[in-house]
Amino acid sequence: MFEVGGNKFTRHLKKFYQLITEVQVKTTEKIQINHTSYKQATMKEELIVKVLQVLRINMSWMTWNLFLAFIPLALSVWLFRIRRNRSWLWWLGFLVFYAFLPNAPYLLTDVIHLIEDIRQIQSVWIITLVLIPVYILVILGGFEAYVISLINWGYYLHRIGKSQWILWVELITHFLCAVGVYWGRFLRFNSWDFITQPDAVLTKGVEEILGKQPLVIIAITFVVLAGLYWIMKRVTLGLRQSQSGIDIKSQQTNSNTPNV
To answer: pTM above the 0.85 mark?
Structure first.
């Protein structure tokens, strides 16, 4: 009788130990799961913070560079679309226009910041869905300002009967902007340096571009500007023509619609 009771006690004791072991295992698993979840949440928070920091830093220089790119665009509208007579004020605005024009294609070189941001974030989804679209919008916005500025310049030449000059003016402008982009990216000159330190621009700037490596960089930049401009000009003019065609059709439809 004592042996039977002892066996029952032993079995209950074993079950109790098994129950304790199972509870310990489940508790450990829950702790590991919670630790993993906490670690993943912490990594997500750190990633979000890092992305916000990168975007905040980028937005400062992106906004400033876009502002500089839109200055020649605004001047081109005033010089070539609105202003009629070429007074001293027109020529002053024309010089300022060419001084600030390289800022528009300069945004193409800001792709180097994208490489640095990719190294910092290291998240394929964030890079694909956030960083790259932001950079594309900024770079395209700056270059489109360049394209529209030259289209307005060509419109002015056509209006004064100098259509044969448009191609040469575009090529010369591409070359001058290629030099300006080199000065800005490698020599860190700004548009207002023509006024604040013209001697440095003329001496150091001219000396630098006479070297073999600067000439190669300027030549490559010229080819890139000319090629991208040729593509974007046709896209821009095509969109304008399609928009004007839609406006004409809508006007015709409205004119054919009887008044009620």
So the answer is: no
